[in-house]
Design goal:
Two copies of one chain form a homodimer.
Chain A (H helix, E strand, L loop, with lengths): L3 H6 L9 H10 L1 E5 L4 E3 L7 E7 L2 E6 L5 E7 L4 E2 L2 H4 L7 E4 L3 E7 H10 L1 H27 L2 H15 L5 E3 L4 H8 L3 H13 L3 E4 L2 E4 L2 H9 L8
Antiparallel strand pairs in A: 1-8, 2-7, 3-6, 3-8, 4-5, 4-7, 9-11, 10-11
Chain A binds a DNA duplex (30 and 30 nucleotides) through α8.
Chain lengths: ~230, ~230
DNA sequence: CGGGTACTTGACAATGGTCAAGTGTGGTGG
DNA sequence: CCACCACACTTGACCATTGTCAAGTACCCG
């Protein structure tokens, strides 16, 4: 990295920190690189700090005994992760694995807690971060418990579209099998739902490129007002 | 309440606060009583503070368009709730309803944020609280996505037992239909699973009294090593 | 004592997962 | 540079779990 202090200063979590603090952070931080497929940490492992993404992406996920995955989060540029055990338990509650080549910054726990103690605005930033995570999890729980797969897929697509500037033509940011793990289902089901949506003229799919043909229908499906035809 | 300051001082979230701060808290706090069935707040409502339970219990839950409920949390004595929008959004991400007659303490947002700013240990307590919530949600997501209903019920019973001092004879702390909403299923399914477990000699059920006859089997079911017989 | 709610049980339906087989494609090593 | 292999994806047939609808019983509260 060319300039660690300036990188750290641009992380949303650390915004509003004075320069002195940024330098202290840069001093306690270390970096770590991983190849695609490598584990950052595993569930139950002892945690002595947390990470911030510099380059690449990792998935945070739970594993069932039979090997099915539920993705909790996909971490991208300048997002922190693994911060939960810093404040409560000492162990990671889920697994983290690189889905691309990855460069991470690592912040040791004790030094970071000290920093929070001395800087209330850092504490409030962290509180805001955890609160947002909580809201996001609330949505995930709602989806898994109260909505069917077409509805969850529709929500995902609409969300992608809104983050891509409300465009109707978008490109999936992840593979369809990873998408299945994000939605809490399996690749076969994702395929079938895409097929049904295509048949209904709601979307057009070509590999990872997807066109939202009928946003209105999509919104109805995502909110559960109507459900998708069987066949 | 006889002595607000001493009550507040005994809330885990506020432990380790100096007396002066406790008095400031007592000054900004108000109280609120609700009858069974009354809403504390609803999803999407503007939030200007959070609550701490003094007496009774409330359920925090999401609602599907068809009226199905998923309970996220049951709040009991001296637990805080509704604190998420204090730090991020301005709106409650779920509903809260009294399941018994309830007495609450309310802390307005801005005064509370000021207090956090001035007291790092309060900030760390709050960070620990949100982290624990996050871990709990992680478990809920895991259950909904990766485990079947018998497994979730088994986990619930084992959890109850451990919190009741490892006793084998326990009393459900909630009605079976509320239990269904906690587990992310419906009362009919809970009934059937209890019936199957009884038939297998795993538990004995009599109204709300439940005896865990075969804890070992129950643990196997909860962890997904084995599954329950069909009939 | 009455009424409503909680709970149970049965028959049925449907969502979505499993298993299997086949197609396409991108990356790598010969 | 091409062939091959692994993997991502698709599709079909089948089945299991769980939700829906309906009816009946029991129980608690007023």
């Amino acid at each position: 990295m060319k300039n660690p202090v300036s990188f750290i200063g641009n992380i949303p979590l650390f915004k509003s920190l004075p320069n002195g603090q940024l330098e202290r952070l840069a001093n306690i931080a270390t970096t770590r690189t991983l190849k695609k497929g490598e584990a950052v940490f595993s569930e139950g492992e002892e945690a002595d700090g947390f990470y911030v993404m510099v380059r690449g992406r990792v998935k945070i996920y739970k594993l069932s005994p039979e090997g099915k995955e539920q993705v909790l989060h996909i971490i991208g540029f300048s997002e922190p992760f693994g911060e939960v055990p810093v404040f409560s338990g000492g162990r990671f509650p889920a697994n983290a694995q690189a889905i691309e080549e990855v460069l991470l910054m690592f912040f040791p726990r004790s030094a970071f807690v000290e920093l929070i103690r001395s800087d209330p605005s850092l504490a409030l930033n962290m509180l805001a971060l955890l609160s947002k995570r909580l809201m996001q999890f609330t949505g995930l729980i709602e989806g898994l418990s109260l909505k069917d797969v077409p509805s969850r897929l529709a929500s995902y697509l609409l969300d992608l579209s809104s983050r891509a500037g409300e465009s109707n033509a978008l490109e999936l940011d992840i593979s369809k099998s990873l998408l299945a793990d994000v939605l809490g289902t399996i690749p076969e089901t994702v395929s079938r739902v895409f097929a049904r949506m295509t048949g209904e003229g709601i979307v057009a799919v070509e590999g990872r490129r997807i066109v939202l043909v009928d946003q209105k229908r999509l919104r109805e499906i995502s909110s559960g007002v109507v459900s998708l035809q069987l066949k």
